Automatic annotation (TrEMBL), chain A:
PANTHER family: GLUTAMINE TRANSPORT SYSTEM PERMEASE PROTEIN GLNP (PTHR30614:SF20), MEMBRANE COMPONENT OF AMINO ACID ABC TRANSPORTER (PTHR30614). The chain crosses the membrane at residues 28-51, 63-82, 94-113, 187-209. This is ABC transmembrane type-1 domain-containing protein. Belongs to the binding-protein-dependent transport system permease family. HisMQ subfamily. Residues 25-213 form the ABC transmembrane type-1 domain. It comes from Puniceibacterium antarcticum. The keyword Metal-binding does not apply. Keywords: Amino-acid transport, Cell membrane, Membrane, Transmembrane, Transmembrane helix, Transport.
TrEMBL record, chain B:
This is ABC transporter. It comes from the Bacteria. GO terms for molecular function: ABC-type amino acid transporter activity; ATP binding; ATP hydrolysis activity. PROSITE patterns: ABC_TRANSPORTER_1 (PS00211), ABC_TRANSPORTER_2 (PS50893). It is found in: Cell membrane. It is a peripheral membrane protein. It comes from Puniceibacterium antarcticum. Belongs to the ABC transporter superfamily. Keywords: Amino-acid transport, ATP-binding, Cell membrane, Membrane, Nucleotide-binding, Transport. Residues 8-243 form the ABC transporter domain.
Length: 222, 254
């Protein structure tokens, strides 16, 4: 029992590793912010393109969305980081992670936005257009606010996925939370830093998951 | 107001959806300040005709003049300005559920008409007053009855100072006891001189309040005249059988 506690819950080692892990956690947060922000904007753009009356634009964006939703994110990351240099495109680990996860994540957000926009009855945009609002004004003032409200739980759970996804960045030696914890483990020959990292992930994700399912229940009730 | 001035004129309007020809040849005129009712069986193209008048539907051929402007010739990018002159009220109200009542009435004023917010708000409250709902200005649409929602929808259209109001079965989705409040607003509007084209199944109201009634069937205007002519002395067999049908069901419902 003592051996178990000493290997997994050694507070002395945790305390030693904490500064390094907090630095990693900060990197994870930075990654998440950039990927989620770009993903939201890119996803909205893709969703609007996929719903556009322009056939070519629509077709291209639908294929784009499907492709990057189907493509495994880890494969995508390795390809961007280690494959693209063969084509002369070299990126820092941070940039490679941002690019790969942006491609993956914006496709997921696009799908969520698209479902949200399609859930709004046609009468809403017709009423808006009939009062002289342009297509864009009707979209931004009438359709999108309702659409976002309808898919808020999905947007939130997608955000949770991004936080989990960023742990894959350790494979390109980006010192985010998981990578830092693993470093600390190999230096200390002790698993406690990994447990601490898991704890930090849960600290951020658990409230998010709670909010999501609470919101989902709220929608079901209404 | 010049009672002989034509406010809305439809000439040889035709509308086809793919292969189905919904409007075959519609001619119709509404003078300034007139309230004209359109009746006819389901599927006869009444809504389609109305929706052509603000180009929510693109006419296949023919011409529509509104307030001296040939709106069928307007390029797509200029449609928004034209639509400010043509108010439309739908069967399903279509209020924006995420905005308060007063914001519903302000939105197009500030975004399409570019009125300053304070002016738009004053105008919105004035219009809500006109439909008897000023006290609901800060309510959300889902807190209102159907009749109240429809009156807000009317205020929303009126706030843009339209030249013509189009109504597509404005009371069909309402519980019978709420119909009266909407009809009253329409009657007040007529007294104020608003030009109105109304698709409706409210035969009693048409008889009492309409200046003229138009009977549509199979994509044509089959018969038109004063309410007394159309209801009291129908000429075509199609109108006779239509009236027999709807008046019968009215009695059944009563
Ligand atoms: N967007 C569309 N695409 C194809 N067909 C359509 C479309 N809109 C209407 N139609 C068809 O046009 C015909 C006329 O429809 P419309 O809604 O104008 O009739 P209506 O007289 O308003 O009927 P109701 O009294 O039931 O409202 C119907 O047969 C309908 O199926
Ligand atoms: Mg109809």
């Amino acid at each position: 029992m003592d051996a178990f506690l000493n290997t997994f819950f050694n507070f002395e080692i945790m305390a030693q590793a904490l500064p390094l892990l907090l630095k990693g956690a900060f990197m994870t947060l930075k990654l998440c912010s950039v990927v989620i922000l770009c993903g939201l904007i890119g996803g909205l753009g893709l969703a609007l393109a996929a719903l556009s009356p322009n056939k070519l634009l629509k077709w291209v964006s639908v294929v784009w969305i499907d492709f990057f939703r189907a493509f495994p994110p880890l494969v995508l990351l390795v390809f961007v980081y280690s494959g693209l240099p063969f084509a002369g495109i070299k990126m820092s680990p941070f940039m490679a992670v941002v690019v790969a996860f942006f491609l993956n994540n914006s496709a997921y957000f696009a799908e969520v936005f698209r479902a949200g926009i399609k859930s709004i009855p046609r009468g809403q945009s017709e009423a808006a257009r009939a009062t002289g609002l342009s297509t864009a004004q009707a979209m931004f003032h009438v359709i999108l606010p309702q659409a976002v409200r309808n898919v808020l739980p999905d947007l939130l759970s997608n955000t949770v996925e991004v936080v989990k996804l960023t742990s894959l960045a350790s494979v390109v030696s980006l010192s985010e939370l998981l990578y830092s914890a693993n470093m600390a483990r190999s230096v200390t020959y002790n698993a406690s830093p990994l447990v601490l990292a898991a704890g930090l992930y849960l600290l951020v994700l658990w409230p998010l998951v709670r909010v999501t399912s609470r919101y989902q229940r709220g929608l079901a009730v209404n | 107001m010049n009672a002989d001035r034509t406010m809305l004129e439809i000439t040889a309007l035709e509308k086809r959806f793919d292969q189905t020809e919904v409007l075959k040849n519609i001619d119709l005129r509404v003078r300034e300040g007139e309230m004209v009712f359109v009746i006819g069986p389901s599927g006869s193209g009444k809504s389609t005709m109305l929706r052509c008048c603000n180009r929510l539907e693109e006419p296949t051929s023919g011409a529509i003049m509104i307030d001296g402007q040939r709106i069928t010739d307007i390029p797509r990018r200029d449609l928004d300005r034209m639509r400010l002159k043509v108010g439309m009220v739908f069967q399903g109200f279509h209020l924006y559920p995420h905005m308060s009542v007063v914001k519903n009435v302000m939105l197009a004023q500030t975004k399409a008409l570019k009125r300053p917010a304070a002016e738009a708000e004053a105008r919105a409250l004035e219009m809500l007053d006109q439909v008897g709902l000023r006290h609901k200005a800060d309510a959300m649409p889902n807190e209102l009855s159907g009749g109240q929602q429809q009156r807000v929808a009317i205020a929303r259209a009126l706030a843009l100072d339209p030249k013509v109001m189009l109504f597509d079965e404005p009371t069909s989705a309402l519980d019978p006891e709420l119909v009266g409040s909407v009809l009253k607003v329409m009657k007040d509007l007529r007294a104020k001189g608003m030009t109105m084209l109304v698709v409706s199944h409210e035969m009693a109201f048409a008889r009492e309040a309409a200046d003229r009634v138009i009977f549509m069937d199979g994509g044509y205007v089959v018969e038109q005249g004063t309410p007394d002519e159309v209801f009291g002395n129908p000429k075509s067999d199609r109108l006779k059988s239509f009236l027999a049908r709807v008046l019968n069901t009215d009695e059944d419902a009563a």
